[in-house]
Amino acid sequence: MYMANDDLGFEAPAKIDHFWREVMDSKHSGGKRKYRVLPELAKKALVLPHGNADVERSLSVNTNVVIVDWPAIGKKTINAIRMVKDIVKFSDPVKECPQSMPLNNEAFSYVKAAHRNYLERIQKEKEEKEHSNKEKEREHLENKKQQEQRKEQQERKVQVPILRKRLTATCASQLWV
Description:
It contains five helices and no strands. By secondary structure, the protein is mostly helical.
């Protein structure tokens, strides 16, 4: 369409931005704009990012967090770290330094909530570990008890023939007396 003067009603300018200005400002003979939706559509399209730099950067940050900093980190912690990094980034997009981040009641409430969630998670993990240890100890004691019972049963099986022989020998010796 650009540089093709087909049915535009004006001469196409040499620069693309001037061309689109002419297209958006073009009007019907009655004075109404020809393309009413086009300017809004173009503005919304121009807002969209043209590259993948932000996505690539966030993947790089995730890689650093997971592989370099803490290799055994959980999903929730990764998400929390990403959220903090994004908050710092968007509070000062030029410098991206935490010192310029505004500290207000809302920020403090988020910090308190995050700390509370952390403590709750640590407590829950501790309780689960204690419960698991108790279960393992109980199972260990049950297995040990069962092994002792089996050992006693085997000893009885072995002792019964020996006792029979002794009893038979004792009875026989008393008969000869």
